[in-house]
Amino acid sequence: MTIGAETASALSGPDLRALFSTAAVWLERNAAAINAINVFPVPDGDTGTNMELTLRAGVAKLAVRDEWRLADAAQALANGLLMGARGNSGVILSQLFRGLVKVTQRADGLTVPLFAEALRDGVQIAYRAVAKPVEGTILTVAREAAAAGARAQDTTAVLRGRYRPARAARLDFMLGYRNASFLRVTGFDALAGVQDVRRGVQVGLTLGRPLAGGMELYAAADAYLGAGAQRSFAALQIVAEGWRSGSGWENVLVSGRAAWYTRPHPRSTVVAGLEYGGGFRVQLPMQLALGDASGGVRGYERAEVGGDRRIVLRLEERWLLGTVRGTADAGVAFFWDAGRVWAGESPLASATPLRHAVGLSFLAAIPPGSRRLWRADLAFPLARESGARWTLRVGSQDRTRAFWTEPEDVRQSRSRAAPLSAFVAR
Q1: By CB neighbour count within 10 A (0-12 exposed, 13-18 middle, 19+ buried), where does 162 fall?
Q2: Given a cut of 50, is residue 1 above it in pLDDT?
Q3: Residue 156 CB contacts under 8 Å (≥ 6 apart), including other chains
Q4: How remote is the C-alpha of 317 from its chain's centroid?
Q5: Which domains does the chain possess?
Q6: CB atoms within 10 A of CB 223
Q7: Which residues, in sequence order, are bridge partners of residue 126?
Q8: For 120-179, what is each residue's pLDDT tens digit?
Q9: What torsion do the CA atoms of 67, 72, 77, 80 make, to the nearest 10 degrees?
Q10: How far is CA 70 from the centre of its chain?
Q11: Is 98 within 8 Å of 79 (Cβ atoms)?
Q12: What pLDDT, on the 0 to 100 scale, is given for residue 126?
């Protein structure tokens, strides 16, 4: 397993191509939102669409090949933007990046200061291209962005040398202990379906002796404890791993879930849970988002806040309403999420106070008694800040298969060179 750790301090031609290709994707995703706020000076509702089509035209010029000199890539982008400009907003957007052509003629790499200079030059060109510039439009946004760019620091400095290449080849020894029985319950993680939950103890341990990579020992553990009956059940699972070197333990990752299920009424289930994920002395890139779709606080998906430790509390009350025409179970749920992140040791991370959200879910299981639960979660964040907004999330999942499934942003930070548990099913 090899993980690269190089961090560039300046963008090359291929980097510029990748940068604007990604920007085009994000602009496409948010074009409708830009259209919705397009009410001044003419409420024609097409600014986002025109900008998206214009940027796509520029990116298409860069897509013809993978390798570019920086200056050639900037020129191709500018030409594509100009020739593909749609509407007034597209024309202005095409002018904003003409500054890139100027600054890249004298540099082999595009640094943060050079990009800020290019944006400032592009704003001046765009203002001159408009006969009667009107403030409160894209011109104002671009000018303020250029001013902010001029004040910005080169954030790549904190990443240089932060991560080193990691190679791991090891011989593992795995052992496990299980003293558990299974209890059949109804309506815990499914709406009305049955599932088997584990009562008892299960522990898996992996010890590895690295054959290469400079580490002395790899250790991972997966521990589970469950107890209760059909109307009240509690469980805890913790998953951890780490590497030991001459300087001590590092790349220590811990995650887990504790939950209590109770059924106060035959049609009602209340679930209270706590979820945690965190890294300590992490030498691999890692950042856990406050609003991560699989493990964060609902309603904060757009909050650009992340760190290397996250805790989330969840409380939900579900009600089974009944069966609809014999084809599906239907239900509703009321939920409360609360969570926070700690910056820890992650570069460019930030900590948050406890953030809350409340919401309503519409539930369905098809066919009746299915373990797969369809949800439409309508979440309302209780904090007024950037990125906090009501969200509607629709999806389905069979949560009866495992008590704890790690969020993707935690899982992808693990070494993943071997299973963490001696048991196939957790």
Answers
A1: middle
A2: no
A3: 7, 8, 9, 112
A4: 26
A5: 6-158 (1.25.40), 170-411 (no CATH)
A6: 17
A7: none
A8: 888 888 888 887 887 877 888 888 888 887 776 666 666 666 666 666 677 888 899 999
A9: -100
A10: 30
A11: no
A12: 87
- Tell me the pLDDT tens digit for each residue of 387-404: 889 999 999 999 998 999
Largest CA distance in the chain: 79
From residue 250, alpha-carbon distances to 33, 95, 246, 333 in Å are: 43, 49, 10, 41
Note the pLDDT of residue 415: 63
Per-residue pLDDT reduced to its tens digit, 320-354: 999 999 999 999 999 999 999 998 877 777 888 99
Q: Which residues contact 122 (CB under 8 A, 6 or more apart)?
A: 95, 96, 97, 98, 99, 100, 142, 146
Residues whose CB is less than 8 angstroms from the CB of residue 236 and which lie 6 or more positions away in sequence, other chains included:
224, 225, 226, 256, 257, 258
For residue 411, the tally of other CB atoms under 10 A from its CB is 16
What gap in Å lies between CA 113 and CA 102, rounded to an integer? 14
Q: How far is CA 261 from CA 184, 301, 368, in A?
A: 14, 27, 21
